[in-house]
Design a protein that fits this description.
mainly beta; six-stranded antiparallel sheet; four-stranded mixed sheet; 5 helices; 20 strands
């Protein structure tokens, strides 16, 4: 099993080829889906850019075999993603940006709990996919860091180091789905991450939105959402399976989402 910088408490790791995953004997998981550069071009700063053909691999519904029935009963799903090294033109390797669909289970757009396993990430978020993007955040995260995306927010995951892959896990609603319409209508997220001439990651405003402010920060303290500093998010689930019930049922933490700052 290839090494990760952070131990997620789950025997899963990216394949040495950089495409797909290797699962331990006690872990279930699907064949990975691959997102190709051609799939995400419309949301990039330069849709004609060059970059890795397979931008990232994603496996949704991963876990320990002993937990399979419990995860289904709690309506929870664990996803694992690995990004290729490299760049997308002047941009880092990243996802397009989307909002989670309204789940039939809760009738809410659902949150997501990210945990970085290897590499360096920026989790970008904006409140709205409209001309006024609202509050915008770029949350810098390294191995072991947790970042939570609140319900209804646009978000994109960005690999902050072009010379190494990025791998992370996330708790999601079992009836997950992605809504891209608003982002694509504005030709991307409100702030594009780009590398300058000194190979530093900087931010360029997307002119298809009204002017906004971008706040760059470290992850917040998520103690109110059950995040512990001494355990991975999968081990936290194992110790207390109800901890992440707010992922499929965001209304359980309705007061936390008000004026939420990631």
């Amino acid at each position: 099993m290839p090494d990760l910088t952070f131990d997620p408490g789950l025997a899963v790791a990216p394949h040495p080829s950089g495409v797909g995953f290797i699962y331990g004997e006690d872990v279930f998981g699907p064949a990975a889906e691959n997102r190709r550069l051609d799939d995400i071009r419309p949301s990039l700063l330069d849709p004609a850019c060059t970059g890795p053909e397979i931008v990232y691999s994603i496996a949704m519904d991963v876990g320990k075999r002993k937990d399979r029935a419990l995860l289904r009963s709690l309506h929870l799903l664990f996803g694992v993603v690995t990004y290729a090294a490299g760049t997308l033109g002047r941009e880092p390797v990243r996802s397009q940006g989307h909002i989670h669909k309204v789940s039939p289970h809760s009738r809410w757009s659902t949150p997501e709990v990210y945990e970085i396993w290897s590499g360096q990430a920026v989790i970008y978020m904006q409140e709205y996919a409209e001309e006024r993007a609202g509050r915008c955040f770029a949350v810098n995260a390294g191995p072991g860091d947790v970042v939570i995306v609140p319900p209804g927010w646009v978000h994109a995951t960005i690999s902050a180091r072009p010379d190494e892959p990025l791998t992370f896990g996330a708790w999601c609603d079992r009836e997950y789905g992605f809504v891209y319409d608003g982002v694509r209508r504005h030709k991307g997220i409100a702030w594009f991450p780009v590398y300058n001439d000194r190979n530093e990651l900087v931010w360029q405003a997307n002119p298809h939105y009204l002017p906004s402010e971008l706040i760059c920060k470290a992850p917040a303290n998520y103690a109110a959402l059950g995040i512990r500093k001494d355990a991975s998010i999968y081990r936290t689930f194992e110790a207390s399976p109800e901890t992440f019930s707010y992922v499929p049922r965001p209304q359980l933490k309705q007061e936390v989402w008000q004026e939420f700052e990631p």
